[in-house]
Amino acid sequence: xxxxxxxxxxxxxxxxxxxxxxxxxxxxxxxxxxxxxxxxxxxxxxxxxxxxxxxxxxxxxxxxxxxxxxxxxxx
Length: 75
Known about the structure:
Oligomer: single chain
Low-confidence stretches: none
Shape: globular
Helix content: 25-40%
Order of helices and strands: HEHE
């Protein structure tokens, strides 16, 4: 995705014009999204504990309730 397109999408989400943001792990790169209160991590088994902790921090530091949800494949 081009930088300008990424910026437009992020601005749309942060300002509340978009309700859902689907992203790769680039979202962990120092972003704070205050209005995000839920993060769903698909295939969490592919990440290390430090990665999951970093991703968890992205969802609304100022949100009243944060809900990290991880999915792993059935054995």
